[in-house]
Design goal:
DNA binding; DNA-binding; about 400 residues; Transposase; 2 domains; five-stranded mixed β-sheet; Cas12f1-like_TNB; Nucleotidyltransferase, domain 5; alpha+beta
Amino acid sequence: MRNKIPNQIILAYKVSHNYNINNFLIDFLNLSQKAVDIIWSNIYWKEKVVKHRYKVGNNYKYYTTVRLIPEIPKDKDFKRELRRRLLNGWNYASHYIDAAIKVAYSTIDSWKSNYLKGLRKRTKVIFKRPFVRVKTTLIKYNKEKGEIKITIKPRKEYLILNIKDEWFFDKVKDWEIGEIILKENSAYLTFKQSLDHSNREIIVGVYSNLKSLDIYHPIEGWIRVDLSELHRIKVVYDIIIDKLKSIYKKSPKRIGRLLKKYLNRRKNRVKDFINKLTTQLSRLFPNAIFIFEDLNKFNMYDKNSKFHRELDRTSWKSIAKQLEYKSIVLYVNPHYTSKTCPVCGSKMESQEGQVVYCPNCKKSFNRQLVGSFNIFKRGIKLVKKIERRSWGPRVWGGG
């Protein structure tokens, strides 16, 4: 479930190691792939009639197709047999079997979600990059020494990481350690801490634009966050990258190195900007729940290639996902957020510039203000619904 009030904050950090674990990585990769193969071969494909439509002028025409819907086996008997088969010939700690099964199911579930949206084909998932997912049952964390001990083979082989001298240690030394991802020369560590909901008394609506975020705060009002610098960074590097691509055939090796250099530089500068932006937002509104639109760029593309490029340069999803690590983020339906009258609820008409007009109220509004306010209102309804399911009603809005 995407919209769920989280009960903990999770932070992830990358550290280096010098252990030779290549064989272990490949063995776990093969184990995870074997789990996927077994699950995939037992998927039941159910036929379902799906209704589609396309626009002709101002009207819609409808047609139907038959889709194959995958039903993934998840019963206890199947999982027990799957675990038994994977244990055969496995020379490491048996808990890695459970980790491989978890990896296989989460990967197939992700594939299914994208398949149902039309973003993936009916082809089996193949793992290519070696890794190991380490469960918390295989980890011992000494908070005083900053020492993490990972069991590879019980009573025989261990991997020890010391993070006391790492820059993030003071921040997470009192946190609980979560799962770890091992790679050839690095490890991705996760730390978790319980999240206090008692001080979350503000709902903040965030309306996403090409070059700005428009925020509606019930106390502070309408706030605009300028993203033009982020857009400029992407444009500058896109021009350089496009130029290099146009002359790539003249010197593939040299141009290839330059392409890699500028692509990484673009990625790092964008990542740095988003990280600083989300940190500032979480500090400015420490007691807020942020409400974003559940936007999908795939559904927004049209025949205008220039608009495609502008759309590709937006970072709505990246900003929201990064903010999830620092605060509570929920998502609402984006339909008509900027066209619904905030007074009477009627559908408004677009006018010149960023102005929308309500023929029922005879009033004009700024599109961005309307969008952020309607997201705020939908957010209040969503949070109340989630709260009723979890802890009972509370008063939300302006504190």
